[in-house]
Amino acid sequence: MAWCSVSYAAAPTLANLSRWSAYYIYKREEFMKGANVGGFEELILLAVEALGDNAYGVTVQELAEQNAKRAVSLGAVYAALDRLETKKFLKSRVEAGGDYRGGRSRRHFVTTAEGRAALAEIKCQRDAMWRLIASASRRRT
Predict the structure, then answer these.
(1) 3-state secondary structure of 56
(2) N or C, where is the chain less crowded by C-beta within 10 Å?
């Protein structure tokens, strides 16, 4: 279970940030066990989750490009997919190719429970940081 599933009585503020940070660091290490997800990997993991059964290299690349609003190479996508599978955030299966693909097989990807938990943790981290920014902005005005 992700650390952020815990209900906080108060969102982190500058007054309780050190206590919250210590809790976060403890729970994050317990939960993630050293498997960090970089920004590009996060984008790829989100694309796989969004595509569902239609997640394979080219469709993941197309969705990543649409959302990143920049060119994304297919090689970089496959490298990220391999890293995410090594971290147990994705599973893959090979589908036999049909005549329309000249007999070439296609590798499909699906997000694992660990991958969905990692995405939930990332979202929780970002939400907490945006709450801190909003809180700091209110104090400045």
Answers:
(1) strand
(2) C
Query: Taking the domain 36-140, which CATH number applies?
Result: 1.10.10.10
Run of H or E including 93: strand 90-95
C-alpha 5/C-alpha 30 separation (Å) is 14
Task: Look at residue 29 and tell me whether its pLDDT is greater than 70.
Answer: no
Long-range contacts of 68-76 (CB under 8 A, 24+ apart): 68/43, 76/40
pTM: 0.72
Q: What is the DSSP letter of 10?
A: S
What are the boundaries of each domain within the chain? 36-140
User: What is the C-alpha to C-alpha distance for residues 127 and 125, in angstroms, rounded to an integer?
Assistant: 6
